[in-house]
Amino acid sequence: MGALVGRAALVLALCVCVYGIGASLYGARTGRREWVDSGRRSVYALAFIVTVAFGILELAFLRSDFSYDTVANTSSLTTPTFYKAAAVWSSQEGSLLLWLLLLSLWSSLAIFLTRKTLREVVPYATAVLLGFGAFFASMTVFLATPFATTHPAPTDGAGLDPLLRHPSMMIHPPMLYSGYTLFTIPFAFAVGALITRRIDAEWIRATRRFALASWLFLGIGILLGARWSYAELGWGGYWGWDPVENAALMPWLIATAFIHSIMIQEKRGMLKIWNASLVLASGTLAILGTFLVRSGILQSIHAFGASTLGTPFVVLIVVLVVGSLYLVISRREILRSENRLDSLLSREAVFMLNNLVLVGLCFVIFWGTFFPLISQALTGSKAAVGPPWFSQYTVPLALILVLLSGVGPVIAWRRATPANAKRNFRVPVLAALGTLVVLLGFTHTSSKPFAIGMFCAAAFVFGSVGQEFWRGIGARRAMSDESPPAALISLVRRNRRRYGGYTVHIGMAVLFVGVAASTAFQHVSDVSLRPGQSTLVGGYRYTYEKATSSVISDPNSTGAILTLGAVMDVTKHGHRVAILTPSAGYYPAPDTSQGPIGSLIGGETTAHIGLQAGLRRDIWTAVQPDIDPLQPLITQGNKLVPPAHPEYAFILLAAIAKHYVNSSPTASFHLMNSPLVTWIWFGGFIVFTGGLTAMWPTGGQRVRARYLARVGRDLQRA
Amino acid sequence: MTVIGVLVVFALLGGVVWIVGGPLRAAVGTREAPDDGRAALEAARDAKYREILDTDMDHRTGKLSDDDFHELDRQRRSEAVEILRRLDELD
Questions:
Q1: Inter-chain touch A714–B78, beta carbons under 8 Å
Q2: Is the CB of residue A16 less than 8 Å from the CB of residue A42?
């Protein structure tokens, strides 16, 4: 019954989208309010229907209903309940449904929030959002339905990919998809505004908030993905310049540029063409990112592999690009700047430079990501570029970006005088120079110029933003006689955009310090050890104390049948620093061809790292046990398990695991110590705290009343 | 089970028609009043107030000299006055 209702719900969702597009456009053309309202309600109805469909699928996963093909392919009886819930979006079909769900929910919120504003723009924006809805609904109806069933149902499923059995998988995809789907909202409102020629302050106010929300969610999603990579993939990195990672980063960079440049339009009426282009580009890049994950066109650990979804996505992207170009070109008259740049020594100028760097970064990443396709088109063979290629261009650009994030806050809008600039740059420059002297004089970092540059740039940011907070608190106290903490709170509360933005800059500087330090000063070693043996990595002694094993009771709660691990003692100068317990989980094979014992552990293998994270340094290990010596025992054991009692396989497997521990087995270790990795996560946390502060709606009534009175007095005098 | 499923589908369809058709049932033929631009002007006014506040903050935190501040503040307040005047014209 569930599958029938689910399938019907998706068909209904498609019909609602098509109806809503028609109703909205008809209402917009004729000015008939009831059709516009009906179109808006179609978005709510879409959210309702898709929620029902998603609930049915989620329930099927939680009940392990293997009559659903997608449940059978991505879940199993042994998959822990927590991961069964997250397994919904591990498949192509389920994740498309999640996309549609989040799109419909965020669109409903946006349409609800703007129900009394942007009256001319909203019907077109509604039509565009429902257009995206129709596209994804048609995908789930015609090309990748999550409600395909098989009868009779298999007794067990293939299980969730072990790599996805990490807590962040519960929240990483919804965050990432929230970011992607939220990007369609500023896109839709930009299309609506361009069609109706209403690129005004009201549009800016609505679009800025939606852009900020999408930026925030996508950023959280990207960071959670990095954390997953660091903690789960067994290579110790958090960013590999993988196409899917890049696909998420590109719209985020463009949105960062937009969030800055829209302020110039808001204050000065400048950069209208640029802003319209940025917001349309970020929406298109969000769809491009979704396409990369789903089409299988580029190799990625995060992608779903080859599929039939590529062509429809290409068609959609072409429509978005051509439509965006047409709208911007045909509306160029209303997009003319109202003012010119007054001075190169102004915040506008810094923002423009920041925009160029961000777009440059995006272009570099775009080129590197699509290089395999470009090279194939030009030479006939697919050639990929690796992390060194990306670093060659992105590192200097990131350095400039961090530096600019320290310059912007201390420069005034429109114009800054050299005397003011001299006064305002003194503290940040001294902070940067002081850092340089300390680094060169007291540390061994001189061989890493880019890392030193980044530390100095970050010190510059801390100096400039710290000075801003200090002066702001001083100004606040001069007015109100508050204590410093109270003055800080009032300062931020009354100037959320400004100080939220500054907090983001601090967070980015902290994050980049973490990236620079952990990249430049990381020590890595791959070694094979027996229990009792040790090795030295970057001044730390790693000693393989003993092997460990467990059957069924996976210490990592991922549902691994067999877990083989190691106890690793880490010391420095004879003092114990950490005891780590990395392990490898072995999961069941999809079939029984490897015998009753072999099949229990013949599926995927995944590493569970041992990590001691610290503010100064992370000690990180991954282990790959050598189970070749166990193969004869497994083969022998397979013969001993009676077909009538397959559960005996677990008893024999426990005996084999015990033998493994007692045999002093050799294991391969990936050992690493990286400085300041925690700063990346901490910096990310600061960034998003700042983002939330900047996004939070301002009360503003008192302020508004005060200024109304003030401007009102002027009006009487005028 | 299939019968219940079909009934649920019809209930969903009914719910959707009810939600979407509500405005059409309630007000047939209502014409939308032409947009007089008030909302856009109000947004512009709020943005201008924010700009005045920003200039004030820039001055207090030493990014603007007294002369520059007075000039910019006067300019922005006269722009706000102009927006208020246009808003008044709509009343």
A1: yes
A2: yes
Beta-carbon neighbour count of residue B42 at 10 Å?
A: 17
What is the arithmetic mean of pLDDT over B77-86? Answer: 86
DSSP character at residue A415: -
Pick the more confident residue, B27 or A364: A364
pLDDT at A706 over 70: no
Residues A412-434: what's their mean pLDDT?
88
Token couple for A283? 């929406």
Query: Residue A150 and residue A392: Cα distance in Å, rounded?
Result: 51
Which residues in chain A have Cβ-Cβ distances shorter than 8 Å to B81? Answer: 711, 714-715, 718
Chain A residues lying within 8 Å of B40, measured CB to CB? 198, 200-203
Distance from CA of B32 to the nearest CA of A (A): 5
The pLDDT value given to residue B35 = 67
Strands A534-537 and A540-551, bridge-based pairing: antiparallel
Q: Sign (positive/negative) of CA torsion B54, B59, B61, B63?
A: positive
Nearest CB to A38; choose among B23, B51, B65? B23
Which pLDDT tens digit goes with each residue over A294-317? 665 555 555 555 567 778 888 999
User: Furthest-apart CA pair in chain B: how many Å?
Assistant: 80
Q: Are B75 and A233 in contact (CB under 8 A)?
A: no
Mean pLDDT for A247-264 is 94
Interchain proximity A12–B12, CB inside 8 Å: yes
CA nearest to B67 within chain A:
A417
B-chain residues within 8 Å CB-CB of A342? Answer: none
ipTM above 0.90, yes or no: no
Instruction: Give me the mean pLDDT over the A678-686 stretch.
Output: 96
Residue B32 and residue A33: Cβ atoms within 8 Å? yes
How close A147 comes to chain B (CA, Å)? Answer: 14
Read off the pLDDT of residues A273-293 as tens digits, 9 standing for 90 and up. 999 999 999 999 999 988 887
Q: Which two tokens stand for residue A626?
A: 């050598």
Contact B30 A411 (CB under 8 A): no
Residue A32: both structure tokens together:
């008939």
From the CA of B89, how many Å to the nearest CA of chain A?
13
Contact B72 A414 (CB under 8 A): yes
Q: What average pLDDT is seen over chain A?
A: 89
Q: Where are the beta strands (DSSP E) in A460-533?
A: 523-529
| CB-CB neighbours of A133 under 10 Å | 29
> Between A and B, how many CB-CB pairs are < 8 A?
174
Mean pLDDT computed over A83-92: 88
Mean pLDDT, residues A624-641 taken together: 89
- pLDDT of A408 strictly over 80: yes
**Which chain B residue has the Cα nearest residue A473?**
B61
The two tokens of residue A86 are 């997250």
A82, exposed or middle or buried, with CB in 10 Å at 0-12, 13-18, 19+? Answer: middle
The Cα A87–Cα A84 span in angstroms is 5
CA distance B80 to chain A (A): 7
Residue A560 is predicted with a pLDDT of: 86
Contact A704 B46 (CB under 8 A): yes
Tell me the β-bridge partners of A583. A565, A608
Report phi then psi at B67, rounded to 5: -65, -45
Structure tokens, A357: 């760097």
Nearest to B23 among A1, A20, A34 (CB): A34
Determine the Cα–Cα distance for residues A451 and A157; give it in Å rounded to an integer: 48
Inter-chain residue contact A41 with B19, CB threshold 8 Å: yes
Nearest residue, CB atoms, A5 vs list B8, B47, B61 = B8
Cα separations (Å) of A525 from A386, A539, A669, A673?
Answer: 21, 12, 8, 9
